[in-house]
Amino acid sequence: MKIKFQTDATLSKDEIEVAIKAMQETETVSKLISYLNKFNESQRALIPVKTEDRIATIKQAEIIKIEVQTTTLIYYTTKNVFKAKGRLYQVLTNLNDDFVQVSRHGLINLNYLESIEVGFAGNMVAKLANNLKADVSRHYLPELEKKVGL
Q: For residue range 9-42, what is the model confidence (pLDDT) as tens digits?
């Protein structure tokens, strides 16, 4: 990948124009476009979670993992466990790049990942802080490996 900077006097002081050139639009190009679109969006430090009796705010940095069971989201944090209604894909859009989807029903925070091990039936299991575990689907394993730098 080549990266270069060009000045353009026709642009205003705060205006930036980014052009991506490639032979064709690949997955890498799509991810780069998605990253650039998210770059200007401010990441929320707090995630609002509507439980049965209140609306709680959870610091992203304290979330270890999030699981979904039917329509119930379960947030495992360093201090508590919160249950709320919702969809996993909607939560993922509000989280920063420290989070990765490891299965159809789970997300983990890479900052709390201790190891990835082979489970009983040959599947992979992510061992997390606070003695938590998360099943890792073979479909999501390559993305997890890429995020941890393998």
A: 998 988 888 889 999 999 888 888 887 877 766 5
Q: Where are the beta strands (DSSP E) in 15-112?
A: 46-50, 55-59, 63-69, 72-77, 81-85, 99-103, 106-109
**Nearest 5 degrees, angle CA 30-CA 141-CA 105?**
90
Q: Is 38 helix (H, G, I), strand (E, B) or coil?
A: helix
Per-residue model confidence (pLDDT) at position 122:
75
Q: pTM above the 0.85 mark? A: no
Q: How many Å apart are CA 87 and CA 12, to the nearest integer?
A: 41
Residues 135-138: contacts with CB under 8 Å, at least 24 apart: 135/102, 135/103, 135/106, 136/102, 136/103, 137/102, 137/103, 137/104
Q: What mean pLDDT, rounded, does the chain reach?
A: 89
Task: Please answer whether residues 118 and 127 qualify as being in contact, where contact means their C-beta atoms are separated by less than 8 angstroms.
Answer: no
Q: Is 138 helix (H, G, I), strand (E, B) or coil?
A: coil
